[in-house]
Amino acid sequence: MILLHIPFFSIPVVWTLTNVIHNLAMYVFLHTVKGTPFETPDQGKARLLTHWEQMDYGLQFTSSRKFLSISPIVLYLLTSFYTKYDAAHFLINTASLLSVLLPKLPQFHGVRVFGINKY
Length: 119
Prior knowledge:
- The protein has four helices and no strands.
- By secondary structure, it is mostly helical.
- The mean pLDDT is 88.
- InterPro entries: ORMDL.
- It comes from Rhinopithecus bieti.
- This is ORMDL sphingolipid biosynthesis regulator 2.
């Protein structure tokens, strides 16, 4: 709603920005920030894991993980519809969706691409 009040933003630009900002925030909070915000009784095991890797004790395909995987897909579909499948917006939104969905795959559990965020 805030982005809609900016006079020079069109509806497709607002939807694309909403999608990109949402996916960027989810990526940062779920896949880059490590550790926990409070003291845990796990003797430091959680300090090397991201929040996504700590969720549900590492079990895959739980209801909370499914919800957090489906929500960017639903937002992507809405964004694609409201941007009328414009090629530029479609590419930006697809890249944004892939950047947030690929780290959620079980094959990437504990994997650090190019050693980024290793320690």
